């Protein structure tokens, strides 16, 4: 028989071919299309890969003119499919006619099913010949099993994905055009609006307002320190919301010299293992180690197609019973985790933890092959290690901790101390680098013991606003509210950044993002609320389960969209005014001292800059600060009177900076001292495009002297040069040191410290 295998990506095509042919496949490329061939059990196989969706959904060309077509007219317009990569489709069409069996081997999820089904339908394949290979990992066992147990394609699953495509395109196109035209933002500066994007942005705007409007409330805690270990005890009434009440208690207990142990208990607490990784939790944990969700998904996809992990798009947190844990562990012996693996294999019985979600399409994310850090580098290794260590944690033993509670009576006032000591590391041993555990040891006491009071103090504090979302916590919230899917959430977040609706690691909404959200809240008929989006997500699921049809869901969605479109159209003038005012405030920096016109943020091919609106008559312009989140202020520079910007850089406290980099206020703040190389320029704190801090000579490019700087914390000039190498001395907190890492004095001190440590050890 002649068999044609269609995969979603080139890496998957190569790996499947290698597995099924035992490495004896051949590839040929013609017209940019690669076809892999091999023989197996007397059958001739051809393998060809797509490039994701090679067939796109769009509106007819005559609807591309935003000015000529009313956005509301798009609501019920029939969308059409266009071929994005004709060369691949033509090659498949030619091979389909010569094939006795066509096997769809795309990713097994909604999108993968649609990609495969739309391809075979586009070439008019005989559907009686079409089969489906389902696998969750590109390993020899999984692939062999999938091709030995082919099934029929799932048209309902494909319909669910197609319904999402149709709905998202119509909502995005109609709303984006309505808002962009109302606000006069067309062309490259259009205002993007989406079915999932808009309620996601509202989450950030709501949190921002909550923080901005937060009024801190003061409170007081009374803390006692007891015994030789000076362990802390908190008053049972902490926090005190009235200072007078706290002062009265403190005055009473400060007179006491000792307290009586009223209660003392010690228990063993079992600390259960974490749940296996689903897509959301993998992205959350990856974000904690500096890999943002979009990057994490791309890396996970590479690891999957390379055969190192299972399919990374899953909502399952329960390993299937068919997955042999010992087999997975045996494969990891060929990795940097051999020692940990051997330790876990010594357990008499290995049974994994499980989470609250159980699905049947794919297992949780787990490692499928061993790898080493000398061959896999950078973030790819960091993510692979995270996935391996999470898997080891799920099959390791529970941890055990000793928890102690001690209540001390001081003249009728009760103080409570809680101790925590980890006794058996269990799973934490394998996942320790991602955990923060603080042990608190209490002395062994018994009820009735008298214990000395070392000190009594009152600590004043105030309530804190809620934390801003980062990308990881936002994805968790989107998952909870059913905004988007495991496959799309990271892309939605990426759009918020690309459209300049949010800025910074902690996703501060810009004035345009806030204005857009407020206008949609006011005029959008509920499209910023997660309920509407969650309802549509439920409809998609109903299609895949056979409870609804594609046509009925799309029709219902169109009716909802039409009502919203009519409301926005009727109120477009008010919407436009609101957004234009916000955009002006986002771009406005201050007043030009030369001509009195506004100074605003301008765009150029080399990036943004601050320029005068009076150009070309007035050519006053300044560069935008590099690598920082920039916020406008109303405070003029105290030295030159120009506008100041508030700069937020990772690892540094917010700072005010004059827009003129040559202003003395900026020079004095960043000047660390005379350059020892040219004795002409000054060494100043500078920032790269990526926001990395370093020190360099002001005479660049004539002088190329630079120094690395610590990425976090405030740096100040010490006001003198190093006595050994003549480089500037700097202050880093309470530490004063030479700026040069190659200073002989530093190296001498490092050698002396090393020798002392060696002597102490001996």
Structural overview:
The chain is an alpha+beta fold. The chain folds into 5 domains: 2-50 and 85-153, Rossmann fold, CATH 3.40.50.140; 163-212 and 468-578, Topoisomerase I, domain 2; 218-272 and 400-462, Distorted Sandwich (Topoisomerase I, domain 3); 279-397, Topoisomerase I, domain 4 (Orthogonal Bundle); 625-762, no CATH class. It contains 21 helices and 30 strands. The protein has a 6-stranded mixed sheet with strand order 2-3-4-1-7-8, with helices on both faces. Strands 9-10-13-12-11-14 form a 6-stranded antiparallel β-barrel. It has a 4-stranded antiparallel sheet with strand order 17-18-19-20. Strand 9 (218-226) and strand 10 form a beta hairpin. Helix 5 (155-183) packs across helix 19 (572-587), helix 6 (197-212) crosses helix 16 and helix 16 runs antiparallel to helix 19 (572-587). The chain is globular. The N and C termini lie far apart (75 Å). The mean pLDDT is 89.
Major β-sheet strand ordering: 2-3-4-1-7-8
The parts where pLDDT drops under 50 for at least 5 residues are: none
Within CATH, the superfamily of the largest domain carries the name Topoisomerase I, domain 2
The CATH class name of the largest domain reads Mainly Alpha
Number of helices: 21
CA(first)-CA(last) distance: 75 Å
Shape: globular
Determine the strand fraction and express it as a percent band.
15-25%
Which architecture of the largest domain would the CATH scheme give at its second level?
A: Orthogonal Bundle
Largest sheet: 6 strands, mixed
Question: How many strand units?
Answer: 30
State the share of residues found in helices, binned by percent: 25-40%
Judged by helices, strands and strand pairing, the structural class is alpha+beta
Tally of individual domains = 5
CATH topology type of the largest domain: Topoisomerase I, domain 2
Could you tell me the radius of gyration in angstroms?
32 Å
What is the arithmetic mean of pLDDT?
89
